[in-house]
Write a structure and sequence with these properties.
The structure holds two protein chains of two kinds.
Chain A: H1 17-24, E1 29-33, E2 39-40, E3 55-59, E4 63-72, E5 86-93, E6 98-101, E7 116-123, E8 129-135
Antiparallel strand pairs in A: 1-2, 1-3, 4-5, 4-7, 5-6, 7-8
Chain B: E1 5-12, H1 23-38, E2 47-51, H2 56-62, E3 69-73, H3 79-92, E4 98-106, H4 137-152, H5 156-170, H6 184-188, E5 192-195, E6 197-198, E7 207-216, H7 217-220, E8 228-237, H8 251-265, E9 274-277, H9 282-291, H10 300-305, H11 322-325, H12 332-343, E10 356-361, E11 365-372
Parallel strand pairs in B: 2-3, 2-4, 9-10
Antiparallel strand pairs in B: 1-7, 1-8, 4-7, 5-6, 8-11, 10-11
The chains are: A mainly beta, B alpha/beta.
Chain lengths: ~140, ~375
């Protein structure tokens, strides 16, 4: 069995570790301002909306919408070479956050701006799960 | 009354593969050419603004100048115009009389990549999105292009019109790195990098240096070249959530920066004789035309297809070939070409009666610089 050859979340990224730990548990979790309730990711020292320094990690709803996408025909890492071309989507989650990710499943070979999606969790190594998206019902 | 300033000296190195030179060496070479261009001595330079030459101390030591004003700026293209504005403000504030603005880039020989593990840009969020294969400003702009296509029906052929127009201009420029013209059909058959953008939609990483000398208009009148008057400038930004494509494609910031520069210059887009549009990627050109008021939102694709950006058109743009075909000198070669056009030194690609040239850049920092052949 070959080792996972794609980039992984940085092990020294302590600030965002709770997001990846939650993904490992099958949960979508982000830093959330305790004063105004706004989610943010990556983790940051203050809330960009109200500048509060008070935050906690909180579960977010898994649904969102595709806002854009691009199809990579060039492998910037050798681990992606076998899958060229591969799709990256920009998802706007219902909680207001955006994130980059990929689509899963047969329906995930094409993307459409406005496509409703739902987060799923894919274990790529015994220690790491990634947050990917499947096409959801409208 | 604000003291007026002008560019009086311009200089550059060849562009391409220049092994054996680092950014400092390329900057020194360009500065030497700029000083020869205006007949000034190193001793006449009392202000130094560097871009992408991190070791400003080594630079100044190497050419034995001790400026009264020194500034080093980061290696982001948005800083070329910021440096121009800052030089003007420093001269107007009396901090220096004659400022050398110097840029050096050894990216090609140094093997710089803007993507993957060696990406220098902070916009890659410390590698946060690498597990999903997301990286590079090229992909970021590809996602923006995708949105523009979805919203307005912009096509890949519209992007190809930008690329092929600037390549045609480069074919008239002996200094351009890529000079072989291509048709839009050839463009459409060329390989993708991050679809919908192709290699031909991306600027060219190259080695090179550019230097500009700015001084007061009073001093400029004693020097041999036609002064390139700084007639207007404006800056704005859109930093919020800038890890992700801006929902308005930077239009709001462009309107703010544009308005300031037009008001200062007493001019509107209709007065411009030539455009230098920051073309890191072809879609940026489309967004800029809309944001700075050359055409209506969403209409830039068909507008470009009508030929308005070509030398024979209403708004000749990126007449040296720009970043897409001349070389990616992070804005500096666009300011250089603007100066050449104003002076009447653009050779086969000269715009007839180029009295006002607009240099614009759209990014999380937006800038708008207007040069003129006449003083205000």
């Amino acid at each position: 069995m070959s080792a996972y050859a794609k980039p992984l979340p940085r092990p020294d990224d302590a600030a965002n570790a709770p997001h990846w730990a939650a993904a490992r548990r099958g949960e979508l979790s982000f830093q959330c301002c305790t004063d105004c309730g706004r989610f943010r990711f990556p983790a940051a020292p203050i809330c960009p909306a109200c500048r509060s320094r008070h935050a906690e990690w909180k579960r977010a709803p898994r649904r969102g919408v595709v806002e854009s996408f691009g199809r990579f025909h060039k492998a910037y890492w050798p681990g992606f070479a076998a899958e060229l071309p591969y799709l990256v989507v920009l998802v706007r989650l219902d909680c207001g956050l955006r994130m980059y990710s990929n689509l899963v499943g047969e329906a995930g070979q094409t993307a459409r701006i406005g496509m409703p999606v739902e987060a799923v969790f894919e274990a790529v190594t015994p220690e790491v799960s990634l947050v990917r998206f499947r096409v959801a019902k409208a | 009354m604000t003291r007026r300033v002008a560019l009086v000296g311009i200089g550059n190195t060849p562009y391409g593969q220049l092994p054996g030179h680092d950014a400092c060496s390329l900057g020194l070479w360009a500065l030497d050419n700029a000083l020869k261009d205006c007949g000034l001595a190193y001793e006449d330079v009392d202000g130094l603004i560097l871009n992408r030459i991190a070791d400003y101390q080594r630079f100044a030591s190497a050419c034995s100048i001790d400026p009264a004003y020194t500034l080093a700026t980061p290696a982001h293209g948005r800083f070329s115009a910021i440096c121009i504005q800052t030089a003007a403000a420093a001269i107007q504030a009396g901090l220096a009389e004659t400022i050398a603005l110097v840029y050096g880039n050894d990216g090609r020989s140094a093997g710089v990549r803007y993507a993957g593990d060696s990406a220098p840009y902070d916009s890659d969020a410390g590698g946060l999105w690498f597990p999903y294969g997301m990286t590079s400003p090229g992909a970021y702009h590809a996602l923006m292009a995708q949105q523009h296509m979805h919203r307005y029906g912009t096509t890949q052929a519209h992007l190809g019109a930008v690329a092929s127009t600037f390549r045609h201009h480069a074919s008239l420029n002996p200094e351009a790195v890529m000079r072989t013209p291509f048709t839009v059909d050839e463009y459409l058959r060329s390989p993708f990098i991050c679809e919908p953008l192709r290699r031909l939609d991306h600027c060219l990483i190259n080695d090179g240096g550019v230097a500009l000398i700015m001084t007061s208009v009073e001093r400029a009148l004693d020097l041999p070249q036609v002064p390139v008057h700084l007639r207007g400038h404006g800056q704005a930004s859109a930093f919020s959530a800038s890890d992700f494509p801006p929902e308005d494609l930077w239009r709001g910031a462009m309107q703010r920066a544009g308005r300031r520069s037009y008001a200062m210059a007493g001019a509107t887009p209709a007065d411009m004789c030539g455009l230098m549009i920051y073309d890191n990627f072809t879609p940026t050109v489309l967004f800029s035309l809309e944001g700075f008021g050359y055409c209506e939102p969403g209409e830039s694709g068909p507008w470009v297809e009508q030929g308005h950006l070509s030398l024979a058109g209403r708004y000749p743009a990126n007449t040296s070939g720009g970043h897409l075909s001349e070389s990616y000198m992070q804005g500096w070669n666009l300011h250089l070409e603007a100066a050449r056009q104003i002076r009447g030194q653009a050779g086969d690609r000269q715009i007839a009666d180029a009295s006002l040239v607009h240099v614009m850049a759209a990014a999380p920092v937006v800038s708008s610089i207007i040069y003129g052949r006449e003083p205000a």
